[in-house]
Design goal:
Blueprint (H helix, E strand, L loop, with lengths): L1 H5 L6 H17 L3 E4 L10 E5 L6 H8 L5 E6 L6 H9 L3 E3 L6 H12 L3 E4 L17 H9 L3 E7 L1 H4 L11 E9 L1 H5 L3 H12 L3 H8 L28 E4 L2 E4 L5 E4 L5 E3 L10 H15 L7 E11 L4 E12 L3 E8 L2 E8 L7 E3 L3 E6 L3 E7 L3 H17 L1
Parallel strand pairs: 1-7, 2-5, 2-6, 3-4, 3-5
Antiparallel strand pairs: 6-7, 8-9, 9-10, 10-11, 12-13, 12-18, 13-14, 14-15, 16-17, 17-18
Helix pairs in contact: 2-3, 6-9, 11-12
Length: 400
Protein backbone atom coordinates (compact mmCIF):
# COMPACT_ATOMS: atom_id res chain seq x y z
CA UNK A 1 0.00 0.00 0.00
CA UNK A 2 2.86 2.39 0.69
CA UNK A 3 4.06 2.21 -2.91
CA UNK A 4 0.55 2.86 -4.23
CA UNK A 5 0.34 5.97 -2.05
CA UNK A 6 3.64 7.50 -3.00
CA UNK A 7 3.70 7.19 -6.80
CA UNK A 8 1.37 7.08 -9.76
CA UNK A 9 0.35 3.38 -9.97
CA UNK A 10 2.21 1.55 -12.74
CA UNK A 11 1.00 -1.54 -14.61
CA UNK A 12 3.14 -4.67 -14.93
CA UNK A 13 2.44 -5.63 -18.54
CA UNK A 14 3.04 -9.35 -18.14
CA UNK A 15 0.71 -9.54 -15.15
CA UNK A 16 -2.00 -7.54 -16.90
CA UNK A 17 -1.89 -9.86 -19.93
CA UNK A 18 -2.14 -12.87 -17.65
CA UNK A 19 -5.05 -11.29 -15.75
CA UNK A 20 -6.83 -10.49 -19.01
CA UNK A 21 -6.58 -14.09 -20.20
CA UNK A 22 -7.93 -15.32 -16.87
CA UNK A 23 -10.81 -12.83 -16.92
CA UNK A 24 -11.65 -13.70 -20.53
CA UNK A 25 -11.92 -17.41 -19.78
CA UNK A 26 -13.94 -16.97 -16.58
CA UNK A 27 -16.29 -14.31 -17.95
CA UNK A 28 -17.08 -16.33 -21.06
CA UNK A 29 -17.17 -19.80 -19.52
CA UNK A 30 -18.99 -19.16 -16.24
CA UNK A 31 -20.75 -15.81 -16.70
CA UNK A 32 -21.45 -16.07 -20.47
CA UNK A 33 -20.53 -12.42 -20.95
CA UNK A 34 -21.93 -10.66 -24.00
CA UNK A 35 -20.19 -7.40 -24.95
CA UNK A 36 -22.20 -4.81 -26.89
CA UNK A 37 -20.89 -1.55 -28.38
CA UNK A 38 -17.12 -2.03 -28.10
CA UNK A 39 -16.72 -0.73 -31.66
CA UNK A 40 -17.97 2.72 -30.56
CA UNK A 41 -14.83 3.41 -28.52
CA UNK A 42 -11.73 5.18 -29.86
CA UNK A 43 -8.92 2.77 -30.69
CA UNK A 44 -6.23 4.73 -28.85
CA UNK A 45 -5.63 7.85 -26.77
CA UNK A 46 -6.90 8.63 -23.27
CA UNK A 47 -10.23 7.20 -22.16
CA UNK A 48 -12.23 7.65 -18.96
CA UNK A 49 -14.54 4.70 -18.34
CA UNK A 50 -17.46 5.02 -15.92
CA UNK A 51 -19.25 1.82 -14.93
CA UNK A 52 -22.34 0.76 -13.10
CA UNK A 53 -21.35 -1.30 -10.06
CA UNK A 54 -23.48 -4.34 -9.25
CA UNK A 55 -21.37 -7.21 -8.00
CA UNK A 56 -18.00 -8.36 -6.74
CA UNK A 57 -16.86 -9.55 -10.18
CA UNK A 58 -17.60 -6.34 -12.09
CA UNK A 59 -13.89 -5.60 -12.54
CA UNK A 60 -13.51 -8.97 -14.27
CA UNK A 61 -16.39 -8.28 -16.65
CA UNK A 62 -15.23 -4.74 -17.44
CA UNK A 63 -11.60 -5.73 -17.97
CA UNK A 64 -12.77 -8.35 -20.47
CA UNK A 65 -15.11 -5.91 -22.21
CA UNK A 66 -12.28 -3.37 -22.71
CA UNK A 67 -10.24 -5.73 -24.86
CA UNK A 68 -7.32 -3.95 -26.51
CA UNK A 69 -6.90 -1.37 -23.73
CA UNK A 70 -4.84 -1.56 -20.54
CA UNK A 71 -7.31 -0.36 -17.92
CA UNK A 72 -6.34 1.04 -14.51
CA UNK A 73 -9.17 0.75 -12.00
CA UNK A 74 -9.97 3.08 -9.11
CA UNK A 75 -10.70 1.10 -5.93
CA UNK A 76 -11.40 1.96 -2.32
CA UNK A 77 -8.24 1.97 -0.21
CA UNK A 78 -9.87 -0.62 2.06
CA UNK A 79 -9.24 -3.20 -0.67
CA UNK A 80 -5.50 -2.62 -0.25
CA UNK A 81 -5.71 -3.81 3.36
CA UNK A 82 -5.73 -7.43 2.22
CA UNK A 83 -2.06 -8.39 1.73
CA UNK A 84 -2.74 -10.62 -1.30
CA UNK A 85 -4.94 -8.01 -2.98
CA UNK A 86 -2.41 -5.31 -2.13
CA UNK A 87 0.31 -7.20 -4.00
CA UNK A 88 -1.95 -7.68 -7.02
CA UNK A 89 -3.47 -4.19 -7.06
CA UNK A 90 -0.13 -2.40 -6.87
CA UNK A 91 1.19 -4.38 -9.85
CA UNK A 92 -2.05 -3.97 -11.82
CA UNK A 93 -1.84 -0.19 -11.46
CA UNK A 94 -4.99 0.09 -9.37
CA UNK A 95 -5.52 3.64 -8.07
CA UNK A 96 -6.53 3.84 -4.36
CA UNK A 97 -9.27 6.20 -3.20
CA UNK A 98 -10.84 7.09 0.14
CA UNK A 99 -14.38 5.77 -0.28
CA UNK A 100 -17.18 8.39 -0.45
CA UNK A 101 -14.81 11.29 0.22
CA UNK A 102 -12.93 13.77 -1.94
CA UNK A 103 -9.40 12.42 -2.48
CA UNK A 104 -7.04 14.88 -4.25
CA UNK A 105 -4.28 12.26 -4.48
CA UNK A 106 -6.62 9.95 -6.40
CA UNK A 107 -7.64 12.76 -8.77
CA UNK A 108 -3.99 13.57 -9.51
CA UNK A 109 -3.22 9.92 -10.26
CA UNK A 110 -6.19 9.73 -12.64
CA UNK A 111 -4.98 12.85 -14.41
CA UNK A 112 -1.43 11.51 -14.76
CA UNK A 113 -2.62 8.23 -16.28
CA UNK A 114 -4.89 10.02 -18.78
CA UNK A 115 -2.11 12.43 -19.77
CA UNK A 116 -0.10 9.37 -20.80
CA UNK A 117 -3.00 8.25 -23.06
CA UNK A 118 -4.04 5.65 -20.51
CA UNK A 119 -7.45 4.22 -19.63
CA UNK A 120 -8.97 4.79 -16.18
CA UNK A 121 -12.02 2.88 -14.92
CA UNK A 122 -14.21 4.39 -12.18
CA UNK A 123 -17.32 3.02 -10.49
CA UNK A 124 -19.08 6.33 -9.61
CA UNK A 125 -21.45 4.72 -7.08
CA UNK A 126 -18.37 3.73 -5.06
CA UNK A 127 -19.97 0.50 -3.89
CA UNK A 128 -21.64 -2.65 -5.14
CA UNK A 129 -25.40 -2.93 -4.92
CA UNK A 130 -27.25 -4.66 -2.09
CA UNK A 131 -30.67 -4.33 -3.70
CA UNK A 132 -30.27 -4.73 -7.46
CA UNK A 133 -30.41 -0.97 -8.19
CA UNK A 134 -27.65 1.68 -8.02
CA UNK A 135 -26.49 3.42 -4.88
CA UNK A 136 -26.11 7.19 -4.71
CA UNK A 137 -23.79 8.88 -7.19
CA UNK A 138 -22.21 12.15 -6.04
CA UNK A 139 -22.61 15.10 -8.46
CA UNK A 140 -18.85 15.68 -8.13
CA UNK A 141 -18.30 12.99 -10.78
CA UNK A 142 -19.49 15.54 -13.36
CA UNK A 143 -16.84 18.00 -12.19
CA UNK A 144 -14.16 15.33 -12.57
CA UNK A 145 -15.38 14.41 -16.06
CA UNK A 146 -15.40 18.06 -17.15
CA UNK A 147 -11.96 18.67 -15.69
CA UNK A 148 -10.35 15.64 -17.38
CA UNK A 149 -11.75 16.67 -20.81
CA UNK A 150 -11.11 13.30 -22.49
CA UNK A 151 -13.48 10.85 -24.23
CA UNK A 152 -15.87 9.27 -21.72
CA UNK A 153 -17.22 5.75 -22.09
CA UNK A 154 -20.04 4.42 -19.91
CA UNK A 155 -20.37 0.69 -19.25
CA UNK A 156 -23.79 -0.56 -18.23
CA UNK A 157 -23.56 -4.06 -16.79
CA UNK A 158 -26.39 -6.57 -16.46
CA UNK A 159 -26.27 -9.72 -14.34
CA UNK A 160 -23.34 -8.64 -12.17
CA UNK A 161 -25.55 -8.28 -9.10
CA UNK A 162 -26.84 -11.83 -9.49
CA UNK A 163 -23.52 -13.42 -10.52
CA UNK A 164 -21.39 -12.26 -7.60
CA UNK A 165 -23.63 -10.54 -5.05
CA UNK A 166 -22.18 -8.38 -2.34
CA UNK A 167 -23.76 -10.72 0.20
CA UNK A 168 -21.50 -13.56 -0.93
CA UNK A 169 -21.34 -16.59 -3.20
CA UNK A 170 -20.97 -17.11 -6.94
CA UNK A 171 -23.96 -17.77 -9.20
CA UNK A 172 -23.48 -18.84 -12.77
CA UNK A 173 -25.71 -17.52 -15.52
CA UNK A 174 -25.63 -14.80 -18.17
CA UNK A 175 -24.16 -11.29 -18.08
CA UNK A 176 -23.96 -8.32 -20.42
CA UNK A 177 -21.69 -5.29 -20.79
CA UNK A 178 -23.06 -2.43 -22.90
CA UNK A 179 -20.37 0.09 -23.90
CA UNK A 180 -21.20 3.57 -25.14
CA UNK A 181 -19.07 6.58 -26.03
CA UNK A 182 -21.17 9.00 -23.98
CA UNK A 183 -19.09 12.17 -24.30
CA UNK A 184 -16.36 13.47 -26.57
CA UNK A 185 -14.15 16.36 -25.35
CA UNK A 186 -16.00 18.68 -27.74
CA UNK A 187 -19.37 17.70 -26.26
CA UNK A 188 -18.11 18.19 -22.71
CA UNK A 189 -16.98 21.73 -23.47
CA UNK A 190 -20.51 22.69 -24.46
CA UNK A 191 -22.27 21.21 -21.41
CA UNK A 192 -22.79 22.41 -17.85
CA UNK A 193 -21.88 20.03 -15.04
CA UNK A 194 -25.52 19.55 -14.09
CA UNK A 195 -26.37 18.30 -17.58
CA UNK A 196 -23.33 16.00 -17.56
CA UNK A 197 -24.36 14.55 -14.22
CA UNK A 198 -27.94 13.77 -15.23
CA UNK A 199 -26.81 12.11 -18.46
CA UNK A 200 -24.36 9.95 -16.52
CA UNK A 201 -27.07 8.99 -14.01
CA UNK A 202 -29.30 7.84 -16.86
CA UNK A 203 -26.47 5.95 -18.60
CA UNK A 204 -25.45 4.11 -15.42
CA UNK A 205 -28.92 3.29 -14.07
CA UNK A 206 -29.93 -0.36 -13.89
CA UNK A 207 -32.64 -2.56 -12.40
CA UNK A 208 -31.39 -6.12 -12.20
CA UNK A 209 -34.78 -7.58 -11.37
CA UNK A 210 -36.49 -5.83 -14.30
CA UNK A 211 -33.70 -7.15 -16.58
CA UNK A 212 -34.18 -10.68 -15.24
CA UNK A 213 -37.94 -10.53 -15.77
CA UNK A 214 -37.45 -9.21 -19.31
CA UNK A 215 -34.87 -11.81 -20.35
CA UNK A 216 -35.91 -14.78 -18.20
CA UNK A 217 -32.25 -15.50 -17.39
CA UNK A 218 -31.65 -17.78 -14.39
CA UNK A 219 -28.63 -18.48 -12.20
CA UNK A 220 -27.34 -21.60 -10.52
CA UNK A 221 -25.28 -21.78 -7.37
CA UNK A 222 -25.22 -22.88 -3.76
CA UNK A 223 -26.81 -21.03 -0.82
CA UNK A 224 -28.73 -18.51 -2.94
CA UNK A 225 -30.01 -16.83 0.25
CA UNK A 226 -26.53 -16.42 1.75
CA UNK A 227 -26.41 -13.48 4.20
CA UNK A 228 -29.89 -12.24 3.25
CA UNK A 229 -30.48 -12.02 7.00
CA UNK A 230 -27.88 -9.20 7.06
CA UNK A 231 -30.01 -6.88 4.89
CA UNK A 232 -33.58 -7.96 5.65
CA UNK A 233 -34.01 -5.73 8.68
CA UNK A 234 -37.80 -5.89 9.12
CA UNK A 235 -40.35 -8.72 8.85
CA UNK A 236 -43.39 -7.65 6.75
CA UNK A 237 -45.58 -10.18 8.58
CA UNK A 238 -44.92 -9.48 12.28
CA UNK A 239 -42.91 -6.24 12.11
CA UNK A 240 -39.99 -7.52 14.18
CA UNK A 241 -36.48 -6.23 13.45
CA UNK A 242 -33.25 -8.22 13.24
CA UNK A 243 -35.12 -11.51 13.51
CA UNK A 244 -34.11 -13.22 10.26
CA UNK A 245 -31.93 -16.28 9.77
CA UNK A 246 -30.64 -17.52 6.41
CA UNK A 247 -30.09 -21.19 5.58
CA UNK A 248 -29.12 -22.36 2.09
CA UNK A 249 -31.89 -21.00 -0.17
CA UNK A 250 -34.34 -19.82 2.51
CA UNK A 251 -34.74 -16.95 4.97
CA UNK A 252 -36.99 -17.34 8.01
CA UNK A 253 -38.20 -14.92 10.66
CA UNK A 254 -37.29 -16.37 14.05
CA UNK A 255 -40.21 -14.51 15.63
CA UNK A 256 -43.17 -15.65 13.49
CA UNK A 257 -41.81 -18.32 11.11
CA UNK A 258 -42.43 -16.19 7.99
CA UNK A 259 -40.31 -17.87 5.27
CA UNK A 260 -39.14 -17.11 1.73
CA UNK A 261 -37.19 -19.26 -0.69
CA UNK A 262 -34.79 -17.72 -3.22
CA UNK A 263 -35.30 -19.33 -6.62
CA UNK A 264 -33.01 -19.55 -9.62
CA UNK A 265 -34.66 -16.38 -10.89
CA UNK A 266 -33.20 -14.75 -7.73
CA UNK A 267 -36.70 -13.70 -6.66
CA UNK A 268 -38.04 -14.46 -3.20
CA UNK A 269 -41.03 -16.85 -3.11
CA UNK A 270 -43.28 -17.56 -0.10
CA UNK A 271 -42.92 -21.14 1.11
CA UNK A 272 -46.48 -21.48 2.44
CA UNK A 273 -49.81 -19.70 1.95
CA UNK A 274 -49.43 -17.80 5.22
CA UNK A 275 -46.03 -16.31 4.42
CA UNK A 276 -45.83 -12.61 3.61
CA UNK A 277 -42.71 -11.60 1.68
CA UNK A 278 -41.66 -9.19 -1.05
CA UNK A 279 -40.70 -10.77 -4.39
CA UNK A 280 -37.38 -8.89 -4.74
CA UNK A 281 -34.71 -7.35 -2.53
CA UNK A 282 -35.41 -4.09 -4.35
CA UNK A 283 -39.03 -4.01 -3.17
CA UNK A 284 -38.08 -5.19 0.31
CA UNK A 285 -35.51 -2.40 0.47
CA UNK A 286 -38.08 0.19 -0.56
CA UNK A 287 -40.46 -0.96 2.15
CA UNK A 288 -37.72 -0.97 4.80
CA UNK A 289 -36.63 2.51 3.76
CA UNK A 290 -40.19 3.69 4.22
CA UNK A 291 -40.17 2.34 7.78
CA UNK A 292 -37.09 4.49 8.47
CA UNK A 293 -38.67 7.54 6.82
CA UNK A 294 -41.74 7.21 9.05
CA UNK A 295 -39.49 7.12 12.13
CA UNK A 296 -37.91 10.37 10.96
CA UNK A 297 -41.21 12.15 11.53
CA UNK A 298 -40.20 12.11 15.20
CA UNK A 299 -38.29 15.37 15.85
CA UNK A 300 -36.03 13.44 18.25
CA UNK A 301 -35.19 10.74 15.67
CA UNK A 302 -31.99 8.91 16.62
CA UNK A 303 -30.47 5.55 15.74
CA UNK A 304 -27.66 4.32 17.95
CA UNK A 305 -25.76 1.20 18.87
CA UNK A 306 -22.83 0.39 21.12
CA UNK A 307 -19.66 -0.30 19.13
CA UNK A 308 -16.04 -1.30 19.42
CA UNK A 309 -13.70 1.02 17.50
CA UNK A 310 -10.85 -0.57 15.53
CA UNK A 311 -7.90 0.89 13.64
CA UNK A 312 -5.88 -0.69 10.85
CA UNK A 313 -2.23 -1.59 11.51
CA UNK A 314 -0.48 -1.33 8.14
CA UNK A 315 2.66 -3.22 9.19
CA UNK A 316 0.72 -6.38 10.03
CA UNK A 317 -2.28 -5.91 7.69
CA UNK A 318 -4.61 -6.38 10.64
CA UNK A 319 -7.00 -4.45 12.89
CA UNK A 320 -6.62 -3.76 16.59
CA UNK A 321 -9.20 -2.60 19.13
CA UNK A 322 -8.74 1.10 19.90
CA UNK A 323 -11.74 1.96 22.06
CA UNK A 324 -15.45 1.64 22.76
CA UNK A 325 -18.37 4.00 22.44
CA UNK A 326 -21.66 4.62 20.66
CA UNK A 327 -22.38 5.10 16.96
CA UNK A 328 -25.26 7.53 16.51
CA UNK A 329 -27.24 8.71 13.51
CA UNK A 330 -29.69 11.62 13.49
CA UNK A 331 -31.10 13.75 10.67
CA UNK A 332 -27.93 15.83 10.29
CA UNK A 333 -24.98 13.49 10.80
CA UNK A 334 -23.55 10.14 11.77
CA UNK A 335 -21.06 10.25 14.65
CA UNK A 336 -18.95 8.20 16.99
CA UNK A 337 -18.90 9.23 20.65
CA UNK A 338 -16.39 7.26 22.69
CA UNK A 339 -12.66 6.66 22.98
CA UNK A 340 -9.76 6.17 20.57
CA UNK A 341 -6.53 5.00 22.19
CA UNK A 342 -7.62 6.31 25.57
CA UNK A 343 -8.71 9.72 24.30
CA UNK A 344 -12.36 10.81 24.51
CA UNK A 345 -13.63 11.89 21.07
CA UNK A 346 -16.70 12.98 19.18
CA UNK A 347 -16.14 12.29 15.49
CA UNK A 348 -18.98 13.33 13.16
CA UNK A 349 -19.64 13.29 9.42
CA UNK A 350 -22.57 15.24 7.99
CA UNK A 351 -24.90 13.36 5.63
CA UNK A 352 -24.49 16.10 3.01
CA UNK A 353 -20.80 15.13 2.73
CA UNK A 354 -21.34 11.37 2.59
CA UNK A 355 -22.94 9.92 -0.60
CA UNK A 356 -22.81 6.40 0.81
CA UNK A 357 -22.09 4.66 4.07
CA UNK A 358 -19.06 2.39 3.91
CA UNK A 359 -20.37 -0.72 5.63
CA UNK A 360 -20.61 -4.48 5.52
CA UNK A 361 -24.12 -5.41 6.68
CA UNK A 362 -24.06 -7.66 9.71
CA UNK A 363 -20.42 -6.81 10.39
CA UNK A 364 -19.17 -3.21 10.54
CA UNK A 365 -19.40 0.46 9.57
CA UNK A 366 -16.35 2.49 8.48
CA UNK A 367 -16.00 6.26 8.58
CA UNK A 368 -13.15 8.50 7.46
CA UNK A 369 -12.13 11.18 9.94
CA UNK A 370 -9.39 13.75 9.41
CA UNK A 371 -6.48 12.87 11.66
CA UNK A 372 -7.62 9.27 12.11
CA UNK A 373 -7.99 7.98 8.54
CA UNK A 374 -10.56 5.15 8.41
CA UNK A 375 -12.00 3.88 11.67
CA UNK A 376 -13.97 0.65 11.75
CA UNK A 377 -16.92 0.30 14.12
CA UNK A 378 -18.10 -3.17 15.16
CA UNK A 379 -21.67 -2.95 16.56
CA UNK A 380 -23.13 -5.08 19.32
CA UNK A 381 -26.40 -5.11 17.37
CA UNK A 382 -25.44 -6.51 13.95
CA UNK A 383 -28.82 -5.59 12.42
CA UNK A 384 -28.05 -1.92 13.12
CA UNK A 385 -25.56 -1.79 10.23
CA UNK A 386 -28.14 -2.30 7.46
CA UNK A 387 -30.61 -0.02 9.25
CA UNK A 388 -28.09 2.81 9.52
CA UNK A 389 -27.03 2.36 5.91
CA UNK A 390 -30.65 2.66 4.79
CA UNK A 391 -31.14 5.83 6.83
CA UNK A 392 -27.84 7.53 6.01
CA UNK A 393 -28.06 7.09 2.25
CA UNK A 394 -31.67 8.27 2.24
CA UNK A 395 -30.70 11.37 4.23
CA UNK A 396 -27.88 12.13 1.77
CA UNK A 397 -30.37 12.08 -1.12
CA UNK A 398 -32.53 14.54 0.79
CA UNK A 399 -29.64 17.04 0.76
CA UNK A 400 -29.32 17.10 -3.05
Amino acid sequence: MKSSKSNTPQVKGWLYRLAYCFCLVVSKLFFRLKVIGRESLPKDGPLLVLCSHQGMMDFLLVLTALRGRTAQFVATQRQFRNPKLNWLYVRMGVIPKVQFHTDPRCVMNIMRVLKKDGTVVIFPAGQTSMWGVPGNIAPSIAHLVKRMNVPVCTVSLRGGFFSAPRLGGLHFGRTEARLDLTFTPQQLQGLEEDAIFHKLEDALYYDEYAWQEETGVTFRGKALAKNYDHVLVCCPKCGSKGSWKAEEDTVTCRNCGNTARVGRDLHLHPVSAGDKVFPTLKEWYGWQEQQVVEQMNDPDFLLETAVTCRVFVEESFSYRDAGTGVLQLDKQEIRYVGTVDGKSVRLAVRHANLPGLSAEPGEYVELFHEGYDLLRYIPEDKAAVAYMKLAQEYLYRKTL
